[in-house]
Amino acid sequence: MKIALIGYGKMGKAIEQIAQQNGHEVVLRIDVNNIADFTAENLQKADVAIEFTRPETAFENLQKCLEAGTPVVVGTTGWLHRLEEAKDLCAQHQGALFYSSNYSIGVNVFFAVNRFLAQMMNGHKQYEVRMSETHHTQKLDAPSGTAITLAEGILEQLGRKTKWVNQSDAKADELSILSHRVDPAPGTHEVYYESAIDSIEIRHTAHSREGFASGAVQAAVWLVGKKGVFTMSDLLGF
Ligand SMILES: NC(=O)C1=CN([C@@H]2O[C@H](COP(=O)(O)OP(=O)(O)OC[C@H]3O[C@@H](n4cnc5c(N)ncnc54)[C@H](OP(=O)(O)O)[C@@H]3O)[C@@H](O)[C@H]2O)C=CC1
Ligand SMILES: O=C(O)C1=N[C@H](C(=O)O)C[C@H](O)C1
Predict the structure, then answer these.
(1) Which CATH number applies to 105-205: 3.40.50.10090, 3.40.50.10800, 3.30.360.10, 3.40.50.620?
(2) Can you tell me which residues form the catalytic site (predicted)?
(3) Is 77 annotated as a binding residue?
């Protein structure tokens, strides 16, 4: 499979390594220093594009891929407020778009466990819930996209929480997410339930970027030949 990498930073490089190990060819690498090469003609040389850049450029980048007719896997976080626009654009171009706040298989299992735990805790008001996420100091967005997905999973199930806040000082109906930035930290997410008599904590710790990169390559292989908007639950079936 021929891959175009949009964003050649930490994730772009990790994806290149995994893609090549799996017999794929990287035919285009776009970063800020060669943005002039980010053309429809060049994109059309690839079977699929994988986009890991910055929150403020992700939408424009996926738009360029859809306009070129190249299926695109988006890993960048912090742009999902424009998801409905992206879905419309994808339909308009009869294209293929895959997005996820986290491509790691382990995190997607963790998402399912988190929703199940929140569902069980809905009837047990003695438990207060809070979250934390820890990432490297170069991370631009807070809370992480993964933490937002976890929080959304809790809010869907737990009637006593109505919104998340990115601070420790939360009202009774708010879910607190604390963000920590330390090096090195590829990504750790924790959900805590605490009552006067006991505590339950669930945690996912990424030991490297390999899980994110390998999941993104899997998503790219899966996406080729499909039309529509997909995410990891479509690929994994849970
Ligand atoms: N979904 C997932 O599983 C994961 C998502 N992420 C997300 O992916 C994104 C990137 O992470 P990471 O690789 O660590 O970040 P990096 O900063 O290491 O890499 C991003 C690269 O994209 C470049 N870039 C910026 N704007 C553009 C543009 N318009 N076109 C092409 N390239 C551009 C940056 O250049 P410059 O630095 O000069 O701006 C940089 O080299 C983040 O949003 C992060 O949260 C990360 C890991 C896993
Ligand atoms: O920026 C990162 O590094 C990561 N970003 C994603 C996020 O915001 O959740 C995924 C992972 O945690 C690493």
Answers:
(1) 3.30.360.10
(2) 135 (proton donor/acceptor), 139 (proton donor)
(3) yes
